[in-house]
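Researcher: Structure for this, please.
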Amino acid sequence: MKKIIILAVAAVSLTSCNNQPVDLATIDPIDIAPKYLYGYDLNNYEVVEDTVKPGDTFNDMIAPHLVKGQSAYQAAITMDSIYELRRIQAGKPYKIIKRKDRANTPEAFVYEPSRKDYILLSLQDMVATKDAHPITYKRKTATGTITSTLSEAMDEQGLGMSAIWELSDIYRWTIDFFKLQKGDRFKMIYKERYVNDTIYDGIEAIDVAIFETGGKPYYAFDYVTDSIKGERDYYDDKGKTLRSFFLKAPVNYTRISSRFTRNRFHPVQKRWKAHLGTDYAAAYGTPIEATANGVVTKSGYTRGNGNYVKIRHNKTYETQYLHMTKRLVKVGQRVQQGQTIGTVGSTGLATGPHVCYRFWVNGKQVDPYRQNLPSADPLPQEQMEAYQNYIAPLKIEIDNLPYPIEEDLATL
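Model: Predicted structure, token format:
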């Protein structure tokens, strides 16, 4: 149901304490704080808010509000020139900003494809523009103690799923979250992102964190190593990265359906042969991630491999990913660890959806599970002094941040 927000000031009759009429002209008008949004002070307009319904066309949304001299056709042409009308989705909000004149003349149409982005169509001069609401950041702190699971501990501190994902992602190479014990605890200093200073839009970054498990604290400091390229990583208090050189697996899999072996009965070819890879079973369309930074050397299709991608990581290591439904990277493209390079499928010689992950060391195919794989590169020595200067105040701040006391935990 359409809602009309009317921003107006009601007229009030005033009398003095001796019941004599008060001359309103002698009273200063009440100051109304401006309410700027989309470039308009909405105190001076009526705003019709609505949501795109399934099957709605742009004409359905705009035409009922237009007045004589305004063209729905011209509005559609102008809107489509900056934002294709076919991209308008059901469930997304839109607004009609109207003047407070006798005809309630529409001044502008606003469509919001996301929380922060909007398309503004001026109906007076027929000009459409893309814009975004201002984003602000609020710095916050949080601490927690594990009594059952990490998610429950963070939920008790009022932290949402985005915080859980961020913290677990930082420590996924360092801490086994399936083996947390009661009494393990964490502290974090982080920034939340807000649209128009009021609408929560998730966590922007965790500046510093400590995760203490088994009585050992693990620090994590967010540090920019190359401001020009925008490269950053999490390092501990000694400048060692928390990341491993390789991810443990290229996909969020349900099971390992076949391991590296020199002699396996092939389910399609019906004969015994070597299987020089590890098969991770997963649903069709599951993202496949590069297990380390590198450059794509092959991205193509063969009868046996189906859609596949091969990546060279350095002079020693190469990896390959087979049977994709889609390939999302090209030869020569540089990829980052964890970047999606394709999706799980069953193309080529495959009986079901999975990714066959192959691993080379010095040109020889090997079982990655039997390799003593390196850690990711530490912070370059020439950056160490600047890094220590950067983290010093953060370390003091988080060290002084208290953990929840036992009495507080008992009341949860």
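Researcher: Any notable elements?
Model: The first helix runs from residue 58 to 62. The two ends are 41 Å apart (CA to CA).
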